[in-house]
Amino acid sequence: MNFLTREIEENGVGLCRYGTSEGSNRLKKHVQIVLVLLFLLPGRAFPQYAVGDHWYDNPLGFEPLKLHTSMGFIVPAGVVGICLLVTENNPALSQRLEVFNELGCSWGYKYPGTFLFKNSTGLNYLLRDFMSMGLEFNVLYPTDNFNRTLGLSVIPFARFYFLNNDRMTLFFESGGGLSYFFNEFPQPTDRDARVGTTVNGMTKYGIGTEIRACDSYSILFGLRHVHVSNGNTSGVERNPSHDSNGFYIGLAKKFP
User: Fold this and answer.
1) How many CB atoms lie under 10 A from the CB of residue 235?
2) Rounded to an integer, what distance in angstroms lies between the CA atom of residue 223 and that of residue 206?
3) Pick from 216, 203, 219: which is nearest to 251 by CA?
4) Mapped to the 3 state alphabet, what secondary structure does the chain carry?
5) How many whole angstroms separate alpha carbon 241 and alpha carbon 239?
6) Which has the higher per-residue pLDDT, 220 or 63?
7) Residues 6+ apart with CB under 8 A from 58
8) CA distance 73 to 89
9) Minimal CA–CA distance to 233: which of 178, 182, 189?
10) For residues 101-124, b (16+ Cβ closer than 10 Å) or e, as one string?
11) How many Å apart are CA 114 and CA 124, to the nearest integer?
């Protein structure tokens, strides 16, 4: 990973260039160690999937991550906090703030195969050249043979960039927040008599890319896993939950 370094000439004029230094390599190693420790040390990794689920339906739904539950934001937020402590801010980073709007669709891989439409509007702020945090507001519309309702949600999230340059980015993101549905969701089916609740937790994770279209506008698209659940707060008999995989596409505008 290259880090942006600044050299100040004797006359006070700054010259910015990309370079790799011994200090930058140490920072990179520190970040890698933090990520490994935070993700792997809390416990052994073993599957936590429901009967009939497969690892490829929810690849990060295992201990200790369980990014399909409350850990969807807690783990990434912990990574962000530690990275902020062990890495230096780069004052030369520009266009840190962006506003985006996304349209997403996902399909439930468990019966009754709920289709979830999701429109997201949010903010994303670049904290480091490899990391950002954001907040999104969502309008939700799940529909199938038993469900048809509207919902709203607020989700803070974090992004970690594998690639970040002037032309494009490639990132992993994860977030978790609260959702409210105007009807109880999910509804009972002919295979499951349980009924969900109006207030649920909602988590997302996935990979995405952002391609620069012009100086301040970019096109977003990617793949995403979505989970809706009340965490058994009203008992397992009121938590049929929802899990789906899908894609999204959107537009982002960057600000200086």
Assistant:
1) 9
2) 6
3) 219
4) CCEEEEEECCCCCEEEEEECCHHHHHHHHHHHHHHHHHHHCCCCCCECCCCCCCCCCCCCCECCCCCCCCHHHHHHHHHHHHHHHHCCCCCCCCCCEEEEEEEEEEEECCCCCCEEEEEEEEEEEEEECCEEEEEEEEEEEEECCCCECCEEEEEEEEEEEEEECCCEEEEEEEEEEEEEEEEEECCCCCCCCCCCEEEEEEEEEEEEEEEECCCCEEEEEEEEEEEEECCCCCCHHHCCCEEEEEEEEEEEEEEC
5) 5
6) 220
7) 49, 68, 225, 227, 243
8) 23
9) 178
10) ebebebebbbebebbbebebebeb
11) 29
C-beta of residue 150 within 8 angstroms of C-beta of residue 184:
no
CA angle 233, 111, 148 (to 5 degrees): 75
pTM to 2 decimal places? 0.80
Name, in order, each residue with C-beta under 8 angstroms of 197's C-beta and a sequence gap of 6 or more: 184, 185, 230, 233, 234, 238, 239
| Mean pLDDT (the chain, rounded) | 82
- 98-129 tens-digit pLDDT: 999 999 999 999 999 999 999 999 999 999 99
CA torsion through residues 67, 69, 74, 80, sign: positive
In one-letter notation, the amino acid at residue 53 is D
Q: pLDDT tens-digit profile of 222-237?
A: 999 999 999 888 888 9
List CB contacts of 97: < 8 A, sequence separation 6 or more: 123, 124, 125, 126, 254, 255
Q: Tokens 């052994």 belong to which residue?
A: 44
Task: Give the largest Cα separation in the chain, rounded.
Answer: 77
CB 74 within 8 A of CB 176: yes
